[in-house]
Each structure stands twice: as C-alpha cells, then as structure tokens.
Design goal:
mainly alpha; 5 helices; single chain
C-alpha cells in the first residue's frame, strides 16, 4: 500500500469515527449537542431536525467514511470535500451576513477548513496515482 493510500485510510477512518460520534451523541441527546452553539430545542420539530441532520446524517456519513477508508477512498474523499466545503461556505456566508460566531463555532470553521484542504490534497494525490497507473498500461 502506497503512502497516500495509508494516509487516506487513517484520515478517513478518524474522520468517520468523529462524525459517527457526533451522530450518536445527537441521536441520544440533541440538546447537549447544540448547547455549545447557544441553541435551544423547545419542540418535537426542532428535536427531530437535529436528530436527523446531526444525528442520523452524521452517523451515516461517518460510517461511509469508515467504509471508504477501506473500500472506496476516492469517492469518500470526494464526498468529504463537498461536505466540509459546504460547511466552510455556509459559515463564511454567515460570518459576512450575521457577524462573528462564538469561539466554539470559530474553531469548527478552522477544523472544517483543514478537513476540506486535506481531503482535496489526498483526492488529488490518489487521482495522480490512478493516472500514472493508467499510463503504464
């Protein structure tokens, strides 16, 4: 296994575990998950939304990243790029439209930006490997 594939395996597995962890926490206690962003969940609709978006979706996304680490690295990296990039775009638009968020959310912007950059770099590295292999045939 080449170095880019090994790094990708570790990166996707750890990222997948992190997403799955958030998903499980949100499914079990959605109020605790959103407390750090100063949100309150006061009705069944708001609880259902957080359980769906931060719970179910994050859990399934995390499991896909873990699967992708071993069986589908480039597709998993591509989805991770889109997912983390979407978070970055949304947070930057919110920063312009709404002002600076609290320190917790600002830290997530940094984490999501790094995740985007690393997933893009690994995607390119794996794509080059595929191109080189195709040229050798």
């Amino acid at each position: 296994m080449k170095i880019a594939s090994r790094i990708t395996l570790v990166f996707l597995a750890l990222t997948g575990l992190a997403f799955a962890n958030v998903g499980i926490q949100a499914l079990l206690d959605p109020r605790a998950v959103v407390a750090a962003v100063e949100m309150t969940l006061e009705n069944a609709s708001s609880l259902s939304t957080i359980r769906a978006v931060y719970g179910g979706m994050h859990l399934m996304f995390g499991l896909f990243c873990i699967f992708g680490a071993f069986k589908a690295q480039r597709p998993a990296l591509g989805l991770l790029m889109l997912y983390s990039g979407g978070y970055v775009v949304g947070r930057l638009v919110s920063y312009v439209a709404d002002g600076a968020p609290n320190a917790f959310v600002s830290q997530w912007l940094v984490t999501e930006s790094v995740t985007f950059i690393l997933s893009a770099a690994l995607y390119v590295a794996l794509s080059r490997k595929v191109q080189l292999a195709a040229q050798m045939v």
